[in-house]
Every structure is written in C-alpha cells, then in structure tokens.
Amino acid sequence: MPDRNFPGPGRLLRRISPVAAVIAFALAMTACVLGVVIWKSLEAKATALAGGQTDIQNLTHSLAEHASHTIRSADIAMAGMVDLLKYRDPLPERFNPYLAETVSSLPQLREIGVLDVDGKWRYSSLPETPGHSNSDRSYFIHHRDTPGGALRINEPLQSRLTGRSTIILSKRIDRQDGSFAGVLTAAIDSDYFNRFYKTFQLGPDGSISLLRNDGAVLIRWPFSDRSTNLSGTDLFSRYLKLSSVGYYKIISPFDGIVKYFGYEETPHYPTIVTLAMSEDWLLADWRRTLRTDAIVAGALLCMIVLLAALLSLQLRSRIKAVRALRQSEAHYRLLADNIADIIILIDARGLLRYVSRSAESVLGFRPKDIVGKSCFDLVHPDDRESIKSATAGINSVDSVSTVVFRHYRGDGTLAWVESKFKLATEPGDPTRTEFLCVIRDVTERKRMEDELTQLNRRLTQLAATDGLTGLTNRRTFDGFLRREYESCDEIAVLLFDIDNFKGYNDTNGHQAGDRCLQAVAKAIGDTTSNTSGLSARYGGEEFAVVLPNTTESAALKVAESIRLTVRALGIPNTASSRGYITISAGVAARNRSTIDEAALVGEADTALYQAKRLGRNRSILYSSLDLHYVESESIQHDGEFTPGERTR
Q1: Roughly how many angstroms between the first and final C-alpha of the chain, as a whole number?
Q2: Would the N or C end of the chain have less CB density within 10 A of its end CB?
C-alpha cells in the first residue's frame, strides 16, 4: 500500500511555491535558449567551414584547369613549330609573321622567339628581332645540355626586353640527326595571371599561388618576396605524397596568418595551384550571425524574466503548451529547412508513411494520393536495386546514403532525383525500421553533366585529329606507334608522300591542294578503318600507316593497294610527268636490327626516299635496299621515269 505520509506528484507540485516554479522555469528556459544558441552557433560554424572548404576546392580546381589550359595551348603551338624547324629552315620574313599571328591568337603570350645554338635570336614575333644573346639563361643551358622535347616551365625572371617579371616556356629544337639546333621560347607576363587572380574575392588575407612541382614559386598573388621556394613546407614533404588534391589548415609561410589551404596539381604539367583564405574571412559571416543570435537570445532572456511572473498561475497549462510548441517548432524547422525538397518517411517494407507537400510542386503527386503505396512503384525498374543497396548499407542513425535514380512524375514522365537516406529510428527490430528520405530534383543538373561529358569527348577527339584530313595527327600517331611497338612482335610502318605536290599546289592553288590532301587521306584512311592499324597525317603532304601484327610482305601489299587506289582517283597534275596525282611509299617492318619505334620510322623514311629517287609512284621495302630495291610488278609496267624526278 502507498505510504500516506509521502506526498504524490500532484501534492508535491502544489507544495512548490510559485516563485520557485517561476525561477525553475526561468532557469530551464535560459538553459534552453543558451543551448539552442550554442548548438546553432556550432552547427553554423561547421557549415561555414564546410562551405569554405567546398568553395576553396572548387575554385582551386578551376584555377588548376585555367593554368593547365594556359600552358597547354602554348605547348601545342610550340610543338608544331619545333617539328617544323626540325625539318625546315624558313625565311625570317615568312616565319616571323607566323610567330606574331600565333602570339595574337594566344592572349597569354607576350612574345615567341627562336634562339640559335649560340643563344642569339634567330626568329621573333616582335616587330624587330632582338640583337642580344640569351645563352646565359638557365633554360637555354638546360636545353643545350639536355636532350628531349619536353616543355620546360622556368621560374620567373626579369625580361631583358620589357624589364617585367616573366615566365618562360621553352622547348629544345633538334636537327634531324638529333643534335641541338636551338631553343624555342614563349614569354608569359606574370601580370597575366595576377590580373586574372585579382578578380576573385578572397578576403584581405587571401592568396593564390602557382608553384612548380619542385617548390619554386611561379606566381604569388598578392605579391610577396618573403619566400620563393616552398619545397620544405608540409605541402611538398607530406600532403602531395598522399594526394594530388587536398585541403588543410596552415599557418601561411608568407604572412604567418592562420588560413585554410587548398591545392591541386595541374593535369599534364609539373605545376601546382594553391589557394588560401584566412580563418577570419571564412568565419566573418558566422561571427556576424553569432552576434545577432546573441542579441536575440538576450532579448528572449529578458522577455522570459519579464513574463516569468505571469506563469505562476498557469504553470501546468503552460508546461503542456511549451511541449506542444517545441514539437510544432521541430516539425516547422524540418519543413522550413527543406521546403524546396521532398521529405518522405518509409517503413521497412518500402511503404510511404509520410510525404511532404513539396511533392506536388516537384513531382506532380499529391501526398494523400501516394501515402501507403510502395516507393518502388514510383521508381524506374532499372534503378530499384540501387535504392535497396543504399538502404541496406545504413547501419546507424549517423549514416547517410545518397543515390541518384529515375523517378516517375505524376504525368508519367521521368525525372532524375537525388535522394539522401537516413535512419529515422534506432537500429533494432528490422520490422520497425523507418527511413527518412530527402529527395531533390536534379534533372537539369543531370542534363548539364551529360552535355559536359559529350563536350569533353568531342574535345578529346579534336585534340587527336588532323583538322584538314580527318586522320589522326602526328602526336596521336607517335603515341600509338610507341604502344604497339612495345606490345607487338611484328609491326610495320608505311610512309607515303604525294609526288610533285608542290608543283600541284603552285599550279592549282592551296584550296585545290587541300582537296587533294583530303582525297588521298580518305584513300589511306579507308585501308585501316576496320583493322587494328592506324592512319595519320605525318606532316605536309606525308602520311603514315601503322600495321600491328603485320609481316613485311603483307605491309607491301597494303602499300601497293593504297598507291593504286590513289592513282585510280585520276586527279590531274600537270606538274607530274604522268599527268595525274601519284604517291610514293616506303615500307619497313620490325627486324632484329630495329632498336626502337623511331628507328622503324626512319627505315620507312629511307625506303620512301629511295622510292622518290627511283622515279616516284612506287613502293619500296627497306629490307630490299641491299637487293637493289624490290618493287612491285605493277610498278615495272608503269614505265614512267624522269631523271629530273630523282630527288624527293
């Protein structure tokens, strides 16, 4: 039996004085207000830092792409010039305007110049070719003493022409025998990057740096000469070894300020872009919001104190009202924070228990029409397994699983949506498990991603294709030959050259010459269109074909087929003794004496030269040169040979 001397809850509550109840209530409300303010402050700070991290990493990626594209466009132009200077020696009055036109088409470049073997200016995009020597520059010494055609990105130096800080891009120029022939340089003013970087709002202590992978500082905005080499920092000693992209908190080596720091290595080139924002800048809005929240909290506390006296007579009813208010406020916050998204509650069987009103505006369903139905009925059949997998991987209330899938609209059309799943109940009985799901329409984002993917695929195709003929370009040919040479025991290279093409161009004009090149390229390209081989425009009127897993005799048959196909085109050529366009071919197959793929191309080129020397319109095997050149039977019947055509 209950002890009559012990007061029950109701009697105990009645014995509490109104003042004590008011004080207890005021203290409780004060604790609640402060708790909400502190919680909101911590959550807002975490959100601000997370948003800052996303902004820094996204901006760093964009800046890395900008730096890569800036250098890559210059590199592509320089590669073509180096190849041209390797085989030809153009006149300055013709080559200098070409350099000037290239500079005008690439806004990042101030000038392009060619230095000879002594470091003197040989060609220049400037109105007047400089007369001084750059043989003492580090990039000239490097290329002179180091074979290789890779682009070198040099540390900033003071230009002897303008006196401004300049980044030099340089490439070695080789002769055909591989010996040093000079250096091709392209100058980029440091102000080009600075003008671009200062357009970003990074706060008073924000900074952007462009570094070389050895730690040399190429660009630092805003300018600081406090440190020109960062190879000893944590970025190079620790973080770059872990990942090419990263984000962490640092004390800046330039100004000693605490900052959040993002970095990313640029694709294709040995450079790194870094971006730093001070912690004070990232949290400035959060601090302003915190001050506002503190003022609001103070006002609320004052109101609690002023109204506390009125609660003594309505203590019990007020407690119930507060509980109802808190529950209503929680629901209101849930809906208000996600008003643009759809919020649903799903039970363990996949049935919809709750659907927010936003489903009608986003997907065209009224909540009352779909509550109680299976969520899988609204999902495209091909995507249902992905949803099951997403929910199966959630094992705690803190776990969140995100999946993108196709969802039916009310009119029967499909929409791409992104859904975040989270447990709405504590893990335990699987039959009582419920999932909270927030759905966002991402149809437009998905469309833009698909368009971007198609655009990137098209850009990749254009970068590997010769614009005039549609065949692959020289760079793609070199890469394909290198890979196939390493993987194939048998491989053949065919080099073709259009006979008397210069005379054809001089007689018929360049437009007719372009059409001729296109017709010959089609005849060559059709030969390898359904094979594992590759056809490419090698340069000018020269074409090349790589035939993996092909013997020498089979390669000769292919060369002859192409030669006869071109001759059958019947393109008139008054510059040729035969009266029509013909081609000569050099054929070389891998043998024991072939040391690498470059030597194989050289052997095909030697055979092509002999085909030209012997009168053109023929195919020559490199292996037959010691046997006085093996020619096909159809060539012997051609019967046309002009002594004046013995040179290529």
Answers
A1: 121
A2: N
DSSP string covering 491-542: EEEEEEEETTHHHHHHHH-HHHHHHHHHHHHHHHHHHHTTSS-EEEEEETTE
Active-site residue, 541 included: yes
The pLDDT assigned to 629 comes to: 41
Calpha distance 237→253 (Å, rounded)? 14
- pLDDT tens digits for range 13-29: 455 566 676 777 778 88
Evaluate whether 606 touches 584 at the Cβ level (below 8 Å): no
Query: Two tokens at 19?
Result: 């003042």
Residue 585's DSSP bridge partners are 496, 619
pLDDT class for 155, splitting at 50, 70, 90?
confident
- pLDDT, tens digit, 9 for 90 and up, residues 318-354: 767 767 777 765 665 565 445 668 888 888 788 888 8
Catalytic-labelled residue, pool 264, 265, 541, 560? 541
Give the pairing of strands 342-347 and 434-441: antiparallel
Pair of tokens at residue 380: 């495209």
**What tokens does 526 get?**
């059709």
Q: What is the token pair recorded at 142? A: 């490097």
Q: Is the model more confident about 257 or about 515?
A: 515
Q: Rounded to an integer, what distance in angstroms lies between the CA atom of residue 440 and that of residue 356? A: 12
Q: Which of 138, 140, 143 shows the shortest CA–CA distance to 179?
A: 143
* DSSP code, position 428: S
Tokens encoding 9: 């809850």
Q: What's the pLDDT score for residue 518?
A: 93
Rg (Cα) of the chain, in Å, rounded? 37
β-bridge pairing 121-124 and 207-212: unpaired
Identify the burial level of 394 via C-beta atoms within 10 angstroms of its C-beta, where 0-12 means exposed, 13-18 middle and 19 or more buried.
middle
- Which strand (E) or helix (H) includes residue 169? strand 165-174
Q: Answer whether 0.70 is exceeded by the pTM.
A: no
